[in-house]
Design a protein that fits this description.
Elements: H1 2-28, E1 34-35, E2 44-50, E3 57-64, E4 70-73, E5 85-88, H2 93-129
Antiparallel strand pairs: 1-5, 2-3, 4-5
C-alpha cells in the first residue's frame, strides 16, 4: 500500500511539473511580439488524465492557444507592418497566475504524500528491527 501511494503521488508530481513547465513558458512569452504576417506565440496547456485503477494520473497531451493572437497598434516597433500593427500572443496573465498557483499547490501536495509514505515505510522497518 505504501508503494502504491508513492507511485500514485509520483505520477501526480510528473503531471504538476509538466503543468508548471507549460505555465512558466506561457508567462515567459506573454510579451513576445511577431509581425502580423507570422503566427503569435501559442500558449501551451497540459491535458491530464486519470489512469486506470490505482495507476495515478498522466499527461494525455497538450493543447495550444490561438495562433492569431491579438493585433496591437505600435507604429514605432521594428516588427510593425505598413499600418503600424504587431501581433502579441493571446495569454491572460491573471489566468496563468491562477494556473501557476494551482500547479504549485498540487506539486506540493503530491510531494507531501511521498514524504509521509516514506516516513510510514521507515517506521514499519523500525518496528521490524525491534
Amino acid at each position: 500500500m505504501t508503494f502504491d501511494a508513492i507511485g500514485i503521488a509520483g505520477t501526480g508530481l510528473t503531471v504538476h511539473r509538466k503543468w508548471l513547465d507549460a505555465v512558466s513558458d506561457n508567462l515567459a512569452n506573454i510579451n513576445t511580439v511577431t509581425s502580423t504576417d507570422g503566427d503569435a506565440f501559442r500558449a501551451r496547456y497540459v491535458i491530464a488524465q486519470a489512469g486506470e485503477g490505482t495507476t495515478g494520473a498522466y499527461v494525455a497531451g497538450a493543447g495550444y492557444g490561438d495562433a492569431e493572437g491579438r493585433v496591437v497598434y505600435e507604429p514605432d516597433h521594428p516588427l510593425a507592418d505598413a499600418e503600424g500593427y504587431v501581433r502579441y500572443p493571446e495569454i491572460d496573465l491573471a489566468s496563468q497566475m491562477g494556473q501557476l498557483i494551482m500547479a504549485q499547490r498540487g506539486y506540493q501536495a503530491n510531494a507531501a504524500v511521498v514524504d509521509r509514505a516514506k516516513e510510514a515505510y521507515q517506521a514499519a522497518l523500525q518496528i521490524g528491527r525491534n
